[in-house]
Structures are given as structure tokens and as C-alpha cells.
Recover the amino acids of this structure.
């Protein structure tokens, strides 16, 4: 059976060109880029070329504004703790209820270490409440961290506008965005988005390798190193550079830019699947449909069924997707994002996320549209909360 | 996939979902016993029903002939429900004998469950117990007289320790004893308590305290309120916004209320969370005017605007 991979917000298939670009640095070009002999110049140069290339992809920023990390989680930790550690006179952080745990939990950890935290609510469409945001900013606000596009729903938050408001309120406020899901899917121009100070992303969400990411630090932004113990990355991130993966990340960014139009047109496939689900599955919520969304993401929540069971059934057809249900989260709690959006409790456990990539085909989407309604119907037949006659959840 | 299920678990799930012959999805009509456990908010729930062949002379000799379930839940919840029904039907046993089936028997039947999924088997055992209790009521069987200890209905009510999954203290204590739970992860795996926000883990009167008491590790601590202090609101309220909110409360609630009784109120000023105001009309001469101001106006302002507000009569 052919695999239909629709979990691209979790990770993506590395582009073969990326793998090719990495290979030399996993064999012959193994030298430590910090070494003095001539042979080590190759890897050293490869890193600087990669940095230049990524700077170009992000809108022609300075290469020195790009810091390589082990992934978006490290980038987020560096941004948040790095900013806190460099600005001791302020201690208030603002973030949103729909952040990835790499930001939300990191902010909570900062709170335990003495910072104060305001978590902004979102509405039913996953959009942040701007009034709450304006009210949240205060004299000692140090950092605002807002996700660019949410990983579960694909909802795109107005980071440029929020960054402008932060800067106009107090230019000392540092604005960070977790752009892990948007880099490669949306055009990002950091020259134009002049109010963004820090931006995180990783390689494996844009057909690059896992274990590599980057943090954009706008020149002049005060951030202390998070990982210390070496001079690499101009003293801002210690540890021997992961040369092959840095090269892979740059290649992935270049390819993403080339394929941007294809990524954008994924909304056609997404909307087709969305319409099929809305037409053929009763009692379903399309989460985030009222907001601007990533073109590749569809999050549906089916009343009265449980997400893990849906995923196992999809797996029978070779379809890979993910869910915000409690049983799939690692903890026993259901998705904090969907809960923050006020998705009804009868549906929050029945959520499924389909996330596409440029490697998906029309036939694949048709296949999902064909089998999904049957899966939901079967699981609902066995649910004590499903009223078959009226096609709705019943609560005694 | 994320969970390491046994072949048996996956197979039972598939068979059940696809309604293979010999599976037990459904509901017995006019059931002799009906038991439920779980809720849709918690992410899994089971509605378990059975039919008996009635023994005309002695209802305790009724034999279960058919068992069915409706389950909202994950793979293992569905497989555990299917397992429960199969085990009961295979045994040709009385409802009281069926109580011998423990959650561990369900786990064994499934050839093991991941630790975090043990609660699915507990759900099966709980629903079975509830159904037997229901049968006993219908058939006029006095279980207590027969020495059958059933803890269903009422007894598990009490202070809620885990708010996320609505787990009460009596239920928690009973399960710690019955299932031999020793740690917080044990509790979470078996009955989900503490599996979401985790704030009950080490709160006073929380999971650790109850565990310590049950395991005799500490002298009994006093009942204490597990309510966490409410997170303080960090948002600074600008003077303009505070004034506007107070004004809205006056126009929207307080004045209409007083006007109904022929009175009125004038907002004079707001300084540092003190709201200066003046009663007018019928209220101005009312003996209870001061009380009205304090009780009513202040209460409305505290509820609607900010709990730090104080009313000063002018």
C-alpha cells in the first residue's frame, strides 16, 4: 500500500537535493571548521555560504544576523532566555495561548524563574484578541513572543502589526516570533518586517534535515548566549558547527523559495478536502477556517469520536495524519490550542490535522476524501454519545 | 504510531470497528444490567450492557448470555471494551461471578497495555461493576447481604482532587488501595487523575498527600483547600479604561437598578480605585442608603470591573 503522507506540520520528507548537498560534509569534508589548516577551509566556507544564502532567503538581511542552532526549540529557548538574561531591568513577558510548547512552556519556565507572564487569549477562529494585547503591554514588558502560523490549525497571526504596536508602545520591547511553520510556506521578508527582532525556525519542516535550525537576531537586539562553552557563531552559540546540516538547511531554504508558488497553491487541494469533509461528515468543526491560514493545513474536529482511533483507522489506508486528542498528546490532556479556541468539548478529542506538502498529489487527496467519512461513521456507530438518527452528539 | 499496542489489541480494535462477526459493539435492548464509566469531556467513555437468562427461583443464579458496549475512545479503550464482553460471554457466569474480572484480567486478555493506557482497562472493570449494581437493583438482589462489596453510586462522591478529570478523593483512595497504586504516574496511568494540568500533584490535599496517607508514609494531614491561588492579573489597567468600565457598569446596571425604585446615583470621581458617588432621588433619603451603596454598588463594581474597587459615599 502506498503511503499518503499528510503530516507535514510534524516533519517533512527531505528533498533529495538537500540530501545530496549534505553528503560531502558527512564524508570527505569532515574537518572542524575552526581548524587552522587549509583543508578545514572548505567546511568553514560552506557554513558562511549557507549563512549568506539563508540571509538572502529571508529578504536580504545581514548574514551575521543568522545564528545556527539545533532546531526551533533551541532557537526559541535562546530567544526567550537570551532576551531575559540580557535585560535584567525588565521582567514581563507577553505570549499567546496558541504557542507551540517550545515557546509556551519556555515562557512558563521563565515565570518560575521570576518573570511575569501574560498569556493572550484567542477567539473561536484562533485569532489573538488585540484589545487584550494592547492592555497587556506595560512599562516593564521585556519580550513579546507570538507564533507566526500555528502548527495545529495553520492560523496566521498578524505578527507585523503586533510588532509595530509593541515598538510604538515602547521601542525597548523585544519582539520574537516562532516562524517554524511559516518559513518555506509563506514569504517572509525580514527587511520589510522591520519590527521583528527575533525569529525562529527549523530545517525539517521545509524538506530539510532534523536537528538543525536558526535564530534570526536583528542587529542591535540584546540577547545573551544560551549555550556557552565555545567561541563558535561569534561567541553566541557554543559547540562545533553541524556543517552538513547547516548546508542542508540552506539548501532547503533555497528550494523552498523556488517552490513557493507550489506551496501557495496547496490551498486548492486543502479546500477540496475541506469541502469534501464538510459535505460528507455531519457534525464537524473546521478549526481556524475563519482566519487567514497556511495553505497546507486542515484541522477538522469531529463531534463524538476520539482522535487516536481515527488515526489508527486512517493508518489502515496508509494515510498519515495527526490529532489533538488526549490519547495522542503524550499527556492525557487534549490540545491546548483547540481548547484556547473554545472548540466544543464534544469535538476537541475528535480533531484530525491534515498537513500537505508539495510532494502530495491530487489523487492522494481524493483518496482521503473518499475514505474519511466512512471512518468517522464507523467510529460514531460505536460511540455512546452519537445519535445516529439525528446525526449529532447526544448527551444524557 | 505512537503507542506500542499488542497485536491482540490492534486486532480487536480493527475487528470491532469493522463489525466483524463475533464482535460486541452495540447495546442490549431492555438490558438486565447497564453500567457507564467516563465522560466525553475526559476523552473516553464506555456504556456497557448485558442480558441474563433469568433463574426463576433464585436471581443470584441468573447467567449472563449477552454483553455489548458502546465506546467513545482510543484504540485501547475500544479493544478493552471488546475484551470485556468476550471474557464475560466465554465464562457463562452469573453477574456476581463476573465481578471477578479485574482490570488486570482485561490487560492480560489484551496481552498487555502500554502503562499510560491502563486506565482503559480500569474503565472496563468500572463499567462492569456499575452494570452488576444496576442488575442487582432490578432483580432485587441484596449484594451487601451476599457479602459483595460494591462501591458504586454515592460512595465515591466527595471533594474533587483532580479537576481536569473530576476525580474525587474517596474514589482516588479506593483505587489506590484496590489497584495497589504507589506513585503519581501509577495513578495517572490507572485512572487518569493528574494527567492534564498536574496542579493537583503536590498541592495540599493533592495526589502526593493522599498517596502518603494511604501508604502510611506520613501522619494524616489536615483537610485543606486545594484551590491554587488565582493567578494574578498582570495587565495594568489604564485610568481611562478603568473609568470607562466603571461608567459602563453604572449606566448598564447600577443606575437602571436604582431607577426602578425611583432613585438614581451620580458618579462624582474616581481616584486610586476609590469610586466617589452620590445617591439621588428616592434613595437619597432612604435609611438604607449607605447599605445600598456599600452592598450593591460596590458588589457590582467588584464583580464587573475590578475587585479592588471601593465605594465612597459623598
Amino acid at each position: 500500500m502506498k503511503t499518503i503522507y499528510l503530516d507535514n506540520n510534524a516533519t517533512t520528507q527531505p528533498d533529495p537535493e538537500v540530501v545530496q548537498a549534505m553528503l560531502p560534509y558527512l564524508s570527505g569534508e569532515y574537518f572542524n571548521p575552526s581548524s587552522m589548516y587549509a583543508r578545514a577551509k572548505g567546511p568553514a566556507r560552506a557554513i558562511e555560504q549557507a549563512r549568506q544564502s539563508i540571509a538572502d532567503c529571508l529578504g536580504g538581511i545581514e548574514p551575521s544576523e543568522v545564528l545556527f542552532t539545533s532546531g526551533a526549540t533551541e532557537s526559541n529557548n535562546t530567544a526567550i532566555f537570551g532576551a531575559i538574561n540580557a535585560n535584567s531591568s525588565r521582567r514581563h513577558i507577553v505570549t499567546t495561548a496558541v504557542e507551540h510548547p517550545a515557546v509556551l512552556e519556555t515562557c512558563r519556565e521563565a515565570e518560575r524563574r521570576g518573570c511575569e507572564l501574560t498569556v493572550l487569549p484567542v477567539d473561536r477562529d484562533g485569532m489573538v484578541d488585540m484589545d487584550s494585547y494592547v492592555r497587556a503591554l506595560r512599562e516593564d514588558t521585556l519580550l513579546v513572543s507570538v507564533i507566526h502560523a500555528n502548527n495545529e490549525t495553520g492560523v496566521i497571526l498578524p505578527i507585523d502589526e503586533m510588532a509595530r504596536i509593541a515598538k510604538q508602545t515602547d521601542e525597548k520591547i523585544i519582539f520574537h516570533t516562532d516562524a517554524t511553520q511559516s518559513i518555506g510556506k509563506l514569504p517572509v521578508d525580514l527587511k520589510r518586517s522591520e519590527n521583528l527582532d527575533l525569529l525562529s525556525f527549523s530545517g525539517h519542516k521545509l524538506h530539510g534535515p532534523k536537528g538543525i535550525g536558526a535564530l534570526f537576531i536583528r542587529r542591535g537586539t540584546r540577547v545573551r548566549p544560551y549555550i556557552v562553552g565555545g567561541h563558535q557563531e561569534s561567541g553566541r552559540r557554543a559547540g562545533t558547527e553541524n556543517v552538513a546540516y547547516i548546508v542542508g538547511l540552506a539548501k532547503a531554504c533555497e528550494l523552498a523559495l523556488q517552490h513557493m508558488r507550489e506551496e501557495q497553491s496547496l490551498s486548492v487541494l486543502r479546500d477540496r478536502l475541506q469541502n469534501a469533509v464538510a459535505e460528507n461528515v455531519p457534525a464537524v468543526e473546521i478549526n481556524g477556517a475563519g482566519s487567514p491560514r497556511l495553505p497546507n493545513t486542515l484541522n477538522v474536529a469531529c463531534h463524538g469520536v476520539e482522535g487516536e482511533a481515527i488515526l489508527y483507522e486512517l493508518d489502515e489506508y496508509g494515510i498519515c495524519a495527526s490529532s489533538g486528542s488526549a490519547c495522542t498528546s503524550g499527556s492525557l490532556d487534549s490540545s491546548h490550542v483547540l481548547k484556547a479556541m473554545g472548540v466544543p468539548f464534544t469535538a476537541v478529542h475528535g480533531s484530525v490535522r491534515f498537513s500537505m506538502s508539495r510532494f502530495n498529489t491530487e489523487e492522494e487527496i481524493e483518496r482521503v476524501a473518499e475514505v474519511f467519512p466512512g471512518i468517522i461513521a464507523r467510529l460514531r456507530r460505536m460511540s455512546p454519545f452519537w445519535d445516529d438518527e439525528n446525526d449529532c452528539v447526544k448527551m444524557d | 504510531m505512537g503507542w506500542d499496542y499488542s497485536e491482540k489489541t490492534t486486532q480487536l480494535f480493527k475487528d470491532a470497528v469493522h463489525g466483524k462477526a463475533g464482535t460486541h459493539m452495540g447495546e442490549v435492548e431492555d438490558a438486565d444490567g447497564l453500567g457507564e464509566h467516563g465522560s466525553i469531556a475526559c476523552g473516553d467513555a464506555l456504556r456497557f450492557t448485558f442480558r441474563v437468562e433469568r433463574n426463576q427461583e433464585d436471581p443470584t443464579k441468573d447467567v449472563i448470555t449477552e454483553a455489548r458496549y458502546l465506546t467513545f475512545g482510543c484504540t485501547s479503550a475500544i479493544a478493552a471494551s471488546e475484551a470485556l464482553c468476550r471474557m464475560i460471554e466465554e465464562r457463562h457466569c452469573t453477574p456476581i461471578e463476573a465481578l471477578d474480572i479485574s482490570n488486570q484480567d482485561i490487560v492480560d486478555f489484551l496481552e498487555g497495555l502500554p502503562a499510560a493506557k491502563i486506565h482503559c482497562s480500569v474503565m472496563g472493570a468500572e463499567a462492569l461493576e456499575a452494570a452488576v449494581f444496576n442488575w442487582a437493583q432490578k432483580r432485587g438482589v441484596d449484594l451487601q447481604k451476599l457479602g459483595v462489596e460494591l462501591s458504586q453510586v454515592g460512595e465515591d462522591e466527595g471533594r474533587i482532587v483532580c479537576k481536569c478529570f473530576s476525580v474525587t478523593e474517596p474514589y482516588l483512595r479506593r483505587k489506590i488501595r484496590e489497584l495497589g497504586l504507589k506513585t503519581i504516574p501509577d495513578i495517572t496511568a490507572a485512572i487518569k487523575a493528574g494527567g492534564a494540568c498536574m496542579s493537583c500533584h503536590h498541592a495540599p490535599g493533592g495526589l502526593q498527600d493522599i498517596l502518603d496517607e494511604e501508604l502510611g508514609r506520613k501522619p494524616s494531614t489536615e483537610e485543606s483547600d486545594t484551590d491554587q491561588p488565582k493567578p494574578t492579573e498582570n495587565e495594568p489597567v489604564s485610568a481611562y479604561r478603568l473609568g470607562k468600565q466603571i461608567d459602563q457598569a453604572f449606566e448598564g446596571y447600577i443606575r437602571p437598578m436604582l431607577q426602578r425604585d425611583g432613585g438614581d446615583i451620580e458618579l462624582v470621581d474616581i481616584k486610586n480605585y476609590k469610586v466617589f458617588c452620590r445617591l439621588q432621588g428616592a434613595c437619597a433619603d432612604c435609611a438604607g442608603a449607605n447599605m445600598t451603596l456599600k452592598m450593591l454598588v460596590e458588589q457590582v463594581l467588584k464583580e464587573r470591573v475590578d475587585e479592588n474597587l471601593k465605594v465612597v459615599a459623598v
About this structure: Chain A has a mean pLDDT of 94. The CA atoms of residues 148 and 157 of chain A lie 5 Å apart. The two ends of chain A are 42 Å apart (CA to CA).
